């Protein structure tokens, strides 16, 4: 074996080892949470691993935390916000990528500027607008404030610019208008970016605690994260029960990410190809 081949193999093994170590560091807390959730009810972390695995914690956490209603609310809000963002991001992203109009670059800068403004900084004006519209303590208060997102607009704008203009010109010659070109040509080709936006938005809304905490007080509007926060306050010392609740709240988004991770990576990798 030549020296170059040996160095290449050693470099590959070293990189693999570093990646495995990084994955272990990231996954270790999740594994601790997962295995603790199967411990006998009332067990402590100091007791260490146990061979007496039990699903009782999951049944108790599901019933005591009233997660059925919380799951329904979080799913409804996450899907609604995601749908709004995909529609608005597709329309605005296509306009910024292909249409020519005065103030286009300035508008793009405004969209990018919204990415650095924390949502918490806008909570007071948003609250006043929602109160004026009689939307406090409604699903509208959980959906409308994040129905448009600068990241989604920029993501699709960048992806649309990677698609050859000749495809649009061919569709235009066949008699398609702008909306038909967007729907029948651009969006099917932008599926990786759409999947990326879907995952980002759905996971962010599923994990959001701030909006339901500030804009709602009705128990029937509790989301998963709000139910989890209230659950943790009640069962602070029951670690297996708490870890079961955390696992229940986390599994859906992990499964969703694993399903769409291929297109997610491709969508992220292609967003910066063109300026």
From TrEMBL:
Protein name, as recorded: Carbohydrate ABC transporter permease
Signal peptide: none
Family designation: Belongs to the binding-protein-dependent transport system permease family.
Main subcellular location of this protein, as a coarse class: membrane
Record GO biological process: transmembrane transport
Pfam families the UniProt entry points to: BPD_transp_1 (PF00528)
PROSITE patterns tied to this protein: ABC_TM1 (PS50928)
PANTHER family, sorted: ABC TRANSPORTER PERMEASE PROTEIN MG189-RELATED, ABC TRANSPORTER PERMEASE PROTEIN MG189-RELATED-RELATED
Keyword Transmembrane helix: yes
CC terms in the record's Gene Ontology section: plasma membrane
Intracellular or extracellular location(s): Cell membrane
Residue ranges annotated for the ABC transmembrane type-1 domain, each copy included: 71-260
InterPro entries: MetI-like, MetI-like_sf
UniProt KW keywords: Cell membrane, Membrane, Transmembrane, Transmembrane helix, Transport
Bilayer topology annotation: Multi-pass membrane protein
Chain ranges passing through the membrane: 71-94, 106-130, 136-160, 181-204, 239-259
